């Protein structure tokens, strides 16, 4: 068989650089099939997918950017609201303090007024009572004194006028001593 | 039947220092000749052609599985396919031609790269063990395609006079040596270039296959008497050569496509 092959080589004694025809044909066909498949089907296929992937990645990046921007704006909004709320709270507190102060002042004034009213009422009541008591006493004391004097003298004093004047003088003296005592008290 | 298999089967008893006195069955040109697997109407279909066709089906099959139902979120296979595709597209085409000019040539370059690479890889695949590209017809076809592309492109881009200026490197500032330069450039570009383009791939695979066959056959041939350690060395060399060939196969596919791109770039280049 080796002899066979050597003979074959001898028969086709040609340089290995001279191509045999059938191989050229097969080689052309084999490569053409590969090329057309790649050209028409496979590479357009994969290029489309690569393009889609690129778009998807870029889309994702864009989406992330948008979300970031949105988050930023929300954060700013929130911060602004927070500052506003703080401001509002401070303002309310101030207002409340002021209101409280006026309220206290008002109440204090009211209390003062009421106290004065009560004190004044007490004073007038006292004065009226004393006046009533004084007049009652004056009558009683006059009567008693008259009775007492009548009994003592044994006779009724006719002269009413004189009688009355004497009593008045006596009572004035009493009043004077009373007011003096009050002043010292 | 491949040359290797026939040889190994035939030289079963052929060992060093054996009585039958047969010599070392050195690989040679006959290692690249195959008896036809079958004949149809005078057309002899042999192993190399079969491997070439299987290459087509493998490349298409793999990339169809990877890209056929491509998804935005890729599966493992698609990821591998994309890595290979990107390597050629960005690593070779965009690097030399730029994204705008190069996009048109991506399908050609991608198919060239993977077709050549798989053809080369057959060199180390058990049972196949023959690089399809070590038969000159295959590199020649591919080089011819690239040649036709860049030559027609030069015509289209620069017109008839422009074409000759382009391929002859016409440059007035050269003065008296201009005719000489033009003749050299003309031959170098139009005649030698496609030849070297094809032969570079062919010769690398041819030599690689010879080395692999040589060490493989020697490993068996030396496996006798006190030469057994030598057989071991030969076997280790076989392994080393297989690894080296794997490297060379990829490099040659890369170089072929890179050169194709640089030829097209030359065709597109403005005149000096």
UniProtKB/TrEMBL annotation, chain A:
<keyword id="KW-0812">Transmembrane</keyword>
<dbReference type="InterPro" id="IPR005864">
    <property type="entry name" value="ATP_synth_F0_bsu_bac"/>
</dbReference>
<keyword id="KW-0175">Coiled coil</keyword>
<keyword id="KW-0066">ATP synthesis</keyword>
<dbReference type="InterPro" id="IPR002146">
    <property type="entry name" value="ATP_synth_b/b'su_bac/chlpt"/>
</dbReference>
<feature type="transmembrane region" description="Helical">
    <location>
        <begin position="24"/>
        <end position="43"/>
    </location>
</feature>
<keyword id="KW-0813">Transport</keyword>
<dbReference type="InterPro" id="IPR050059">
    <property type="entry name" value="ATP_synthase_B_chain"/>
</dbReference>
<protein>
    <recommendedName>
        <fullName>ATP synthase subunit b</fullName>
    </recommendedName>
</protein>
<comment type="function">
    <text>Component of the F(0) channel, it forms part of the peripheral stalk, linking F(1) to F(0).</text>
</comment>
<keyword id="KW-1003">Cell membrane</keyword>
<dbReference type="InterPro" id="IPR028987">
    <property type="entry name" value="ATP_synth_B-like_membr_sf"/>
</dbReference>
<keyword id="KW-0375">Hydrogen ion transport</keyword>
<comment type="subunit">
    <text>F-type ATPases have 2 components, F(1) - the catalytic core - and F(0) - the membrane proton channel. F(1) has five subunits: alpha(3), beta(3), gamma(1), delta(1), epsilon(1). F(0) has three main subunits: a(1), b(2) and c(10-14). The alpha and beta chains form an alternating ring which encloses part of the gamma chain. F(1) is attached to F(0) by a central stalk formed by the gamma and epsilon chains, while a peripheral stalk is formed by the delta and b chains.</text>
</comment>
<keyword id="KW-1133">Transmembrane helix</keyword>
<keyword id="KW-0406">Ion transport</keyword>
<comment type="similarity">
    <text>Belongs to the ATPase B chain family.</text>
</comment>
<dbReference type="Pfam" id="PF00430">
    <property type="entry name" value="ATP-synt_B"/>
</dbReference>
<comment type="function">
    <text>F(1)F(0) ATP synthase produces ATP from ADP in the presence of a proton or sodium gradient. F-type ATPases consist of two structural domains, F(1) containing the extramembraneous catalytic core and F(0) containing the membrane proton channel, linked together by a central stalk and a peripheral stalk. During catalysis, ATP synthesis in the catalytic domain of F(1) is coupled via a rotary mechanism of the central stalk subunits to proton translocation.</text>
</comment>
<feature type="coiled-coil region">
    <location>
        <begin position="61"/>
        <end position="102"/>
    </location>
</feature>
<keyword id="KW-0138">CF(0)</keyword>
<keyword id="KW-0472">Membrane</keyword>
């Amino acid at each position: 068989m080796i002899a066979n092959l050597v003979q074959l080589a001898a028969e086709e004694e040609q340089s290995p650089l001279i191509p045999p025809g059938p191989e050229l044909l097969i080689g052309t066909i084999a490569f053409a099939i590969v090329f057309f498949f790649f050209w028409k089907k496979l590479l357009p296929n994969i290029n489309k997918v690569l393009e889609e992937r690129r778009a998807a990645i870029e889309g994702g990046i864009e989406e992330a950017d948008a979300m970031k921007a949105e988050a930023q704006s929300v954060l700013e909004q929130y911060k602004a609201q927070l500052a506003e709320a703080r401001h509002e709270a401070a303002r309310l507190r101030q207002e409340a303090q002021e209101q409280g102060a006026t309220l206290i002042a008002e109440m204090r004034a009211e209390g003062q007024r009421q106290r004065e009213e009560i004190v004044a009422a007490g004073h007038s009541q006292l004065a009226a009572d004393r006046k009533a008591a004084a007049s009652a006493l004056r009558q009683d004391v006059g009567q008693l004194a008259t009775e007492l004097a009548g009994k003592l003298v044994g006779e009724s004093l006719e002269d009413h006028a004189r009688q009355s004047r004497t009593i008045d003088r006596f009572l004035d003296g009493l009043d004077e001593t009373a007011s003096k005592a009050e002043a010292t008290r | 039947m491949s040359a290797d298999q026939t040889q190994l089967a035939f030289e079963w008893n052929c060992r060093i220092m054996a009585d039958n006195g047969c010599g070392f069955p050195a690989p040679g040109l006959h290692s690249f000749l195959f008896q036809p697997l079958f004949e149809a109407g005078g057309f002899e279909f042999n192993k190399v052609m079969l491997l070439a066709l299987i290459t087509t089906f493998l490349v298409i099959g793999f990339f169809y599985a990877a890209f056929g139902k491509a998804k935005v979120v890729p599966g493992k296979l698609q990821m591998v396919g994309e890595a290979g595709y990107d390597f050629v597209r960005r690593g070779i085409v965009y690097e030399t031609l730029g994204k705008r000019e190069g996009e048109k040539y991506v399908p050609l370059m991608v198919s060239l790269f993977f077709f050549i690479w798989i053809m080369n890889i057959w060199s180390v695949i058990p049972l196949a063990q023959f690089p399809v590209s070590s038969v000159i017809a295959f590199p020649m076809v591919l080089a011819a395609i690239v040649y036709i592309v860049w030559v027609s492109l030069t015509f289209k881009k620069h017109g008839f006079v422009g074409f000759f200026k382009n391929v002859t490197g016409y440059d007035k500032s050269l003065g008296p040596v201009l005719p000489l330069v033009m003749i050299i450039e003309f031959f170098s570009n139009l005649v030698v270039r496609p030849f070297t383009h094809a032969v570079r791939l062919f010769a690398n695979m041819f030599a690689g296959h010879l080395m692999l066959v040589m060490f493989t056959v020697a490993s068996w041939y030396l496996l006798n008497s006190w030469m057994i350690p030598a057989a071991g060395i030969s076997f280790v060399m076989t392994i080393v050569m297989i690894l080296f060939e794997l490297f060379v196969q990829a490099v040659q596919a890369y170089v072929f496509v890179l050169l194709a791109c640089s030829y097209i770039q030359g065709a597109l280049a403005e005149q000096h």
